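Input record (one chain):
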Amino acid sequence: MLNTIKIIMIDDDQTIIEALTEMLELEGFQTESHSRADKAISLLNKDSPVVVLSDVRMPKMNGMNLLAHLQELDNELPVLLMSGHGDIPMAIEAMKEGAYDFLEKPLQPAQLISQLQRASEKRQLVLENRKLKQNLAQQTGLETLIIGESAAIKNIRQHISSLAQANVDTIIYGETGCGKDVVARALHQFSLRNKGRFIAINCGGISESLIESELFGHEAGSFTGANKRHIGKIEAANGGTLFLDEIETMPLPVQIKLLRVLQERTIERVGSTTPIPVELTVIAASKDNLAQLGEEGKFRQDLFYRLNVASLTIPPLRDRPEDILPLFHHYARKASEHFSRALPSITPSYLDYLIQHQWPGNVRELKNATDRFVLGISETSLASIKRQDDINGSYEERMDQFERHIIEEGLRATNGLLNEAAELLDMSRKTLYRKMKKHQLDKQHFKATENEGHE
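The corresponding structure, as predicted from the sequence alone:
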């Protein structure tokens, strides 16, 4: 990731530039140096893949003026200022105006490298986030339905294009919440039967006594309570697509009748012996391996072989992290329209949370998280995520974690305003600034978090 971000160094002291260049390039950073701030600005744009490291005291344009210009150009561009004058009020002012950090000369190599790594990672996330949003806005056709950039999702899109035109019966495998119904609808929408109806039935959501009537329909008087004729799901899907979700839960006797429908393409309503021809594509979905269930006697093998003309497997979201952000942006736009709410700003810490989370509920869980995010009621800081390493460690490490949490809460409560946060935490501004540097906290993160809750 770091190799794609360049460090732009600005200092009128050539000795310092040469020393920084040698140190940073040994650490694997790409660098570019300038002796004048105005020259550097002229080469940058809103989406430049850079982090700026600049001296404060320079002729013509100083570091504070540079910061103001870059904030106007792109307020998400990390700018680290450095000064040899130990000017605490200036440091506070720089942080208040949006600087990523303020470093005192002589620079501490470990601290500088650590902050540049964090700033580079932040910049990379911001740029990737922008690119994904642009790509989503430009997508058409199948890409608007099957969202993702992973090799697995690209492969699924290719298979859908081929299978949809063939109108073949298909099995879709995948964990709960991974989007089997979305793939099924895409198969229908891009098929030659897309003028017909897409009829979905959850086999696990209907009692065994009712599923036969729901699938095949019934005639009036065929059983107690059957007061009038009922058209079943299979007949309703005639000319279109029947989607059988959780087919592994279908009772074995009903499986026998379904097999006959697939073989003969006719149905008989319950209470009738009149065959009704049907032309349809059947798509089944299962979270379990139907072949294995067949070997165990829990699913009819002949039905499995009849359905298994083609199959698709959707990997769980944890195995395709490249798809998390595209899916998040897709559902965020939909949630924004649904709830009539403006899209909140996405902080780097929240992006980090999205990528690191394992998503046991797959896309369904991500969609719910996106709804909460748009409504302003989601977690927006990694501080709220309890990791195993948060509860382990030495006494000093755990106290550091607690101190960081308290400072984060103070900054969050005051929307990143340092004066108010210092007063709330009952400490001096100098102490607050020092502790923010210690824990590598950026006040901009807390400004964004506050905005999320009020837009």
